[in-house]
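Q: I'm a student working through a structural biology exercise. My instructor gave each of us a protein and asked us to get a predicted structure, then write a short paragraph describing it. Mine is Phosphodiesterase. I'm not confident about reading structure output yet, so if you can add a plain explanation after the tokens, that would really help. Here is the sequence I was given:
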Amino acid sequence: MLQVVFSRFCSPGDMKELFCTAAGLQRNTTISLMDVTGAMVSIDPTMPHNTEKCVRPSSCCRRHRRRHGDGRRTLKAEVSNRLAMLEKRVELEGLKVVEIEKCRSDIQKLREEMASRSHRSVAVNPSFLDDSKKLTPRRDVPSYPKYHLSQETVEALRKPTFDVWQWEPNEMLSCLEHMYHDLGLVTDFSINPITLKRWLLCIHDNYRNNPFHNFRHCFCVTQMMYSMIHLCRLQEKITQMDILVLLTAAVCHDLDHPGYNNTYQINARTELAVRYNDISPLENHHCAVAFQIFSQPDCNIFSSIDPETFKLIRQGTITLILATDMARHGEIVDSFKQIVDVFDFSNEEHVTCLKMVLIKCCDISNEVRPTEVAEPWVDCLLEEYFMQSDREKLEGLPVAPFMDREKVTKPTAQIGFIKFVLIPMFETVEKLFPEIEEAMVQPLRESRDRYEELKQIEDATREVRATPEGCFDWSAELLLAAIISHLRFRQVNKM
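A: Happy to help. First, here is the predicted structure for Phosphodiesterase. I'll explain a few features afterward.
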């Protein structure tokens, strides 16, 4: 029996030569392989292995015989071999092409599905309608570690200078839990501590991972509210129910925010805009999600409160969350200005107006904080704005100039907001609570001055770059140098 071993990379011609050499035949001898049944076997790298049970004897013909019948059979065998080899190659190559096309098709389908989901995420699929699983915490209380807050942290937590970027989600949850205990709300309203933990976990899980409107923003707003309660000594002036409503509204005020504002919701005619008739669609949604969470027995921190008191808490919380709609800013601040000089803490309407202004202050209070804490929030907000404006351009919707990445810069975004929104509102609150002047109003003025100086640097830099070569404008260069020197001087003085 002949044994021929060949590599799978051999060509059919090389294999035939190996068979001839092993059989002691000349290289141009025509060779045919037949199996035990007499069927011809194609000589190529895809031929199956020989085994003891299935021996393939070789049938060799020396040089082409001159007889007509032998020549025809030889030619037929050779053509058959060649055809079998070609068919195999065509089949293998065809499979590769089919697989490549299938991969391309799958990738395209995946892209279309991702784009479709992204488009539907705001417009037709608000999570509180279709995803009830989020309304119960994904983690149970045992996996919520108990953090011991140091005295230094407890003191820092009461101040507007608190650095909200240093804390992980579980640590922020522990800080929120501490606030409810520290203000006496757990005791006064018989809140089950385990239910409080579960509720906070559920709150965390129902904030989306947006650049700005996320759980850290929720914590930031609530911590500022907590600091204002201490700084203004509100517990001496308003009821514990008012304190509970203030803190709870701050926690819930942006629940399930999709990252696209009311203007987008209304212009795109989303599910939320249709549901709430274009009236504060996001704020109404935040309220709905908040009280759906409270409707879960394991998360209802108000379970021990009588129905009448709960109605008051519910109405108060809804009123405050709806007040965070910036479309109502002028209306709310003007109402407060009219009563601030004759404010009466025993007047329920006055107190309600104050609470609305307080949650507004806390919601947009980032510039009150130190620069190193405040500035990253501007980057986060601009990132979210740019996501929206890019989508609006893609969908052919109106784009607000302050959201357009091609038109806005950090100084231009902040100067007008600080000058015409933040400072006037905080100065009005200062009339009632003079103690916030140093801790809140003065930092806002410093922030305004810093951004105005940055704007001057931007303008001077732009002017220098725009000056044609050979026509250098020394006045612009000197202005730029003077501003930079002034900023360095201010920084050294602060140190």
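A: Here are two points you could use in your paragraph. Residues 460-494 form one domain. The longest strand covers residues 30-34. It's a good idea to check both against the output above yourself.
Q: Great, thank you!
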